[in-house]
């Protein structure tokens, strides 16, 4: 995200102390790298002929797991009968 926005996360958060800014940037970099790696791994477990939507869902499941999103909090995928 910092590369895309061309701004460090600590600057976005308004952190002024240089040590705290370094620790914040490092922690967010580590977290983001770990999540990206797990998302990529989830995609590689899909069959070769999987559709793009399956790839998005696999990545979203990993992100939801890291963020603690419960299955009941996710939007319904199908309409309820009734």
Helix fraction, binned, reads 55-70%
The end-to-end span amounts to 43 Å
Elements, N to C (H/E):
HHHH
- Rounded to an integer in angstroms, the radius of gyration calculated over CA atoms is 17 Å
Model description:
With 82 residues, the chain is mainly alpha-helical. The chain has one domain (2-73). It has 4 helices and no strands. The longest helix is centred in the middle third of the chain and has 27 residues, at 18-44. The model has no long low-confidence stretch (mean pLDDT 86).
How would you summarize the topology of this molecule?
Elements: H1 2-5, H2 9-13, H3 18-44, H4 52-67
Tags for this model:
single chain, mainly alpha, 4 helices, 82 residues
Give a short overview.
The chain is mainly alpha-helical and 82 residues long.
């Amino acid at each position: 995200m910092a590369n895309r926005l061309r701004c460090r996360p600590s600057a976005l958060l308004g952190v002024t102390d240089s040590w705290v800014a370094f620790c914040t940037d490092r922690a967010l970099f580590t977290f983001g790298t770990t999540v990206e790696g797990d998302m990529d791994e989830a995609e590689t477990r899909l069959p070769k002929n999987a559709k793009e939507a399956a790839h998005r869902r696999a990545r979203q499941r990993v992100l939801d797991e890291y963020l603690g999103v419960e299955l009941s909090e996710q939007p319904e995928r199908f309409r309820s009968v009734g």
